[in-house]
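Our consortium's second objective concerns turning raw sequence data into structural hypotheses that experimental partners can test. To show how far this objective has progressed, the report includes one record in full. It was chosen at random from the queue rather than selected for favorable results. The single chain below, 97 residues long, was entered without modification.
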Amino acid sequence: MVEKVSPQGDGVVRNFIYGHFRTDIPAQEGYSQEIVSESLDKKYYDDIESLPLLTKTGCTLLEQFSHKVKTQGDSTFLGTREITGKDDKDKPIFGEY
């Protein structure tokens, strides 16, 4: 799994996973295993060009956004989180999106 640690401007570090190493194929000699997006369906691993929006010509940003909302609308990508308290170092603790 590939993780990134990212401070969000408020001093709080939030860990998130955005991709993982493929385990279904071996790494090529001299290279690490391939990294794929955490949200990519396995059926597109070796055929990325067949993703529905990539094959459509003239696809707009709004169409891409609408597609993501339809297919992954429950993901915690955009949103706000309320401060629910403070930790022992007086840093904010955030609730769910």
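The partners drew two points from this record. Residues 2-94 form one domain. The longest helix spans residues 61-72. Both points have been shared with the crystallography group to help prioritize constructs.
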